[in-house]
């Protein structure tokens, strides 16, 4: 059986699928009829994962699907099996199965992905063995399941999505609540709840905002449905990196923010605001040891402010000194001359030296200030 649950899809702002709910029974022929442009092809391409929904889900024999652009990942309600596969359906690999454990028989499971991990929500809808609703994590390479949260306040999570370092979970059973749960686990925190929601179902993070679908189904299946946009608190997607450089070089610190914008930025050096440093990147030209220190940036979005972890700039004041090795008996005297351009005969006296030992090294302390300089030693009578 194929089940389409509250499916939404838009292209360039044009809504094509608006909360579609369908079931295709096994062994039966179903005909989809409609005018040109009504969304028939778009719907079919969702059924074979050529398109992925903006929100909602497609279940094939109880399987939810997500992708990271490399593989498809599925969560099966029967025995809690999780698989990966290629987009053409080949190379199906079982990543984990936990019958009677993390996924009970015929629970509804939704799946999301981020980085190297998969995240699965079990709504506990048929927990005949008393297993509560829960959210778990499984590596994409397979292995052991980890429980991120189990039981209250979760009641019946139907969908989840990843935004930054948090999961956002749609839970219609908990008075239509959207929960926030850290990717590392913990206690869900209520983001929004109740009105105007009536019967939420799917949730997606797209371009900095959360989109929540509401079937408006109060038991009559006659509701018009709705999509709500929620602001996501600003989070750090990528922070500035510590750097080591030498005097005179150019250094750039950059940061990437997620959540609902627009964003404003303020860079600081050792806790003090840098005037004019209000972009997502900070470029320092011709650095000196005075630029060394601890750099932070505060990012403000539609919902709150976050400060990036400190990045340290280390400036090595490396200098190359020019010199001459002088030989001769102790007491010998030389006139040290220099020329900045060998195309001329403009040799200038720098100083006179008297050898106290042999050999003796003469170093020009001002040589790092010059791009090029040539030296010679002229014996004095």
Q: Helical content, roughly? A: under 10%
Note the beta-strand portion. over 45%
- The oligomeric status of these chains comes to single chain
Low-confidence stretches: 99-106
Distance between the termini: 107 Å
Report the C-alpha radius of gyration, rounded. 33 Å
CATH class of the largest domain: Mainly Beta
CATH topology of the largest domain: Neuraminidase
Known CATH architecture of the largest domain: 6 Propeller
Q: Domains counted in the coordinates: how many?
A: 3
Structural class: mainly beta
Mean pLDDT: 83
Q: Judging from the principal axes of the Cα atoms, what is the shape?
A: elongated
Q: Helix segment count?
A: 1
Compute the number of strand runs: 33
**CATH superfamily caption of the largest domain:** TolB, C-terminal domain
Describe this structure in words.
This protein is mainly beta. The radius of gyration is 33 Å and the shape is elongated. 2% of the residues lie in helices and 48% in strands. Strands 20, 23, 24, 26, 27 and 28 form a six-stranded mixed beta sheet that branches. The protein is built from one helix and 33 strands. Strand 6 and strand 7 form a beta hairpin. It has three domains: 231 residues, TolB, C-terminal domain (Neuraminidase, 6 Propeller); 81 residues, Immunoglobulins (Immunoglobulin-like), CATH 2.60.40.10; 57 residues. The N and C termini lie far apart (107 Å).
